[in-house]
Amino acid sequence: MTEIWELYKQGQWEVPFLTFSIYLFIAASLILYLVIVASRNGKIKRERLSKEYSTIIDKIMSAVIFEDVPFAEVKKDKNFLVLFDTSFFREVLTESLINLHKNYEGVYAQKLEHFYKDSGLIKDSFKKLKSLKWEVKCKGITELAEFNINEAFDQIIVYSKARKKTLKIVALNAAIKLEGTESIKYLVEHSDPIDDWMQLNIIGAFKKHDIGDREGIEHLLESQNTTVIALGLKLIKELKLTQKLPYVVHLADNTSNTIIKYKAQSLLQTLTP
């Protein structure tokens, strides 16, 4: 430090400073290059492993679906157990199960659900709900909802009030898929604003999962949250729930909110013959 101070007083500090800066820049660039190369190599390796695993998984799933081979039989293969002990293989396996489950119905879908539970992959999904990363939580919620794990509802609905909008939407969509209008009571009590994008996703979830029992949707009109009321009106309109019109009439006659009153009256004009 003394030598540097002396150079500074003598006005000879520019050259050492510039030399140090150049060396620092070169070192930082080299470190950044090594990080990029390592990241790229890791990605290439994962892609290669994913293809290899997918080939193995396809054979296993074919046996499970079409030959009625249970997980208890699959795990007798020592090579499979070695692979199954790695988190990345289980991740690829879960993704494969989800893709298959989306394309199969009835008995075949049930076989995939049994495999998901019997293999313990369901435990991985529940662990994801406790992750500190919102995107990992979303993944766990999506997996549990896809395989119709109704007992996960109470843990999933908690995230309908998360700060992260994407996590909110994923949680609400999953809750609607699992319990249908049972999720309505949580929306009624929702204190945060539900913006147009979230409302669109919720309506889409009701349409997608073709929920037969619409009982309870009218309770959205009783919420203290005007955005929840607006959502209720949109659901009644989009799902053409004419049996809910008496509740809309009551809302239009009693609300003091002019915007809500206008929306209710417009809905009555649209759905009334």
Question: Which structural traits does this protein have?
Answer:
about 270 residues, 2 domains, mainly alpha
Could you describe the 3D structure shown?
The chain is mainly α and 273 residues long. It has two domains: 1-119, no CATH class; 154-273, no CATH class. The protein contains 15 helices and no strands. Helix 7 crosses helix 8 (134-146) and helix 14 (245-254) runs antiparallel to helix 15. The N and C termini lie far apart (89 Å).
Secondary structure elements and their pairing?
Blueprint: H1 2-9, H2 14-66, H3 71-74, H4 78-84, H5 87-103, H6 106-118, H7 121-128, H8 134-146, H9 153-157, H10 165-179, H11 184-188, H12 196-208, H13 226-238, H14 245-254, H15 258-271
Helix pairs in contact: 2-5, 2-6, 5-6, 7-8, 8-10, 10-12, 13-15, 14-15
| Distance from first to last alpha carbon | 89 Å
Order of H and E elements: HHHHHHHHHHHHHHH
Strand tally = 0
Number of contiguous helices = 15
> Mean of the pLDDT scores?
86
How many structural units, i.e. domains? Answer: 2
Strand composition percent = under 5%
Unreliable stretches (pLDDT < 50, length at least 5) are none
Major sheet: size, sense and barrel closure? none
Structural class: mainly alpha
What shape does the CA trace take? flat
What is Rg? Answer: 28 Å
